[in-house]
Amino acid sequence: MRRLSTCTLVVTLIFVAVSGCGRSTPPDRPTAAAGTTPAVTAGEAVVEQVVDGDTLVVRLGDGTEDRVRLIGVDTPETKHPSKPVECFGREASAFTASLLPEGTRVRLERDVEARDRYDRLLAYVYRADDDLFVNLELLARGYAAVLTVPPNVAHTDEFVAAARQAREEGRGLWSACGDVGVPAA
């Protein structure tokens, strides 16, 4: 079992307390029973569209389209129905689109939960041609903050380290906005 840093543990505990013990599935959506295999494990897909900095539409191997939410990252909002566009949101969306233009082949890897409360597929996303870890790249370049939602914590330590370095070096949103969630000017 991996050990979490004290900072990661505190952030995780705060998130669990605020979010109702980590429940990310609405009451009307059943969760997978212990020992069952989720519908989607890992596999290749093709990017159809970048919705915003942390959400994509992909075409899966069986030909179906699905929305994918990148695990562990939170980019500033650009399309939230009840929130204004946030500082560096457009830049984060454009950066994700530059990493994953339409037609890019990607490898999707799951963590514990298959889907979020909005029924988006949760995944760590890797570009197939060069194995670039997109979730980590967004954090390292300052286009996202860490969003830890237990039990999906496989890369939390490296995510926290990358975001800390980006913040300390004033990359991306950290120099432009000072923090995540700031409304755009």
Question: How much strand content do the residues show?
Answer: 15-25%
Number of strands: 7
- Helicity range of the residues? 25-40%
The SS-based structural class is alpha+beta
- Rg calc: 16 Å
Number of domains: 1
According to CATH, what is the class? Mainly Beta
Tell the overall outline.
Answer: globular
CATH fold title: OB fold (Dihydrolipoamide Acetyltransferase, E2P)
CATH architecture descriptor text: Beta Barrel
Number of H/I helices: 5
Write down the overall mean pLDDT.
82
For the record, give the distance between the C-alpha atoms at the N and C termini, rounded to a whole number. 44 Å
SSE series: HEEEEHEEHEHH
Stretches where pLDDT falls below 50 for ≥5 residues? 1-40
Strand order of the largest sheet: 1-2-3-6-5
| Main sheet overview | 5 strands, mixed, barrel
